[in-house]
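User: I'm curious whether this sequence folds into something compact or stays loose and floppy. Could you predict its structure so I can see for myself?
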Amino acid sequence: MFKVQDVVKHENGNQGEIVFGPFRPTLSEGPAYLVQWSDGDYAGRCAVTYGQNLTPVPRFEVGQVVRSSETMGLFKVVAGPFNRYTGSKWYVLEDADGAQDMEYEAYMVPVVE
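Assistant: Here's the prediction. I'll summarize afterward.
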């Protein structure tokens, strides 16, 4: 299930943010969400969308530069996200010397270049 502010991608390729939900629409099964689209022909518009048609969008992408809030160092994301048994997500990061380590998503901040 998703929650408000989750970024999702619809099976048709449009990306958006959950702004309300989950809820059960009349005469329907499964959870639905109100999604505000951020790209495509429907950018800025909202639509009721079923959860089965949505997938989560990772917060970070492979190749992206991030800062670890634990070490304050700069790293490049080389793999992930991976799910921990607790539900938290983690990534494999690489520093400027090529050393790799893992970091939890909650301790990563995107670097604006």
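Summary: The chain has a mean pLDDT of 91. The radius of gyration is 17 Å.
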